[in-house]
Amino acid sequence: IVVGWARASVRVLEDRPLQCYRCLRYGHMAVTYQTDYGLTGHCFRCGGTGHVAKGCTEVVRCLLCHHEGKRADHRMGVSRIRRS
Fold first, then answer.
1. Residue 63: its H or E element
2. Which residues form the CCHC-type domain (predicted)?
3. Is pTM beyond 0.85 here?
């Protein structure tokens, strides 16, 4: 794309599946949320409570994958989470 004197390359991003911002699970939105399982108060780095990711020194653990018995050695919300 050329805008004025500048040129920029453009690439099409792949479609992202529907993802709830409240629990980070796929296939629904927070407005249609049906359960009490939410991530309020949990650290997005380790899944623990009482602190936030910015100051977290715990081992990285995805709370979503941990609850489902999957490999959980990554942060919540990263693209490594299997979209099922």
1. helix 63-67
2. 43-58
3. no
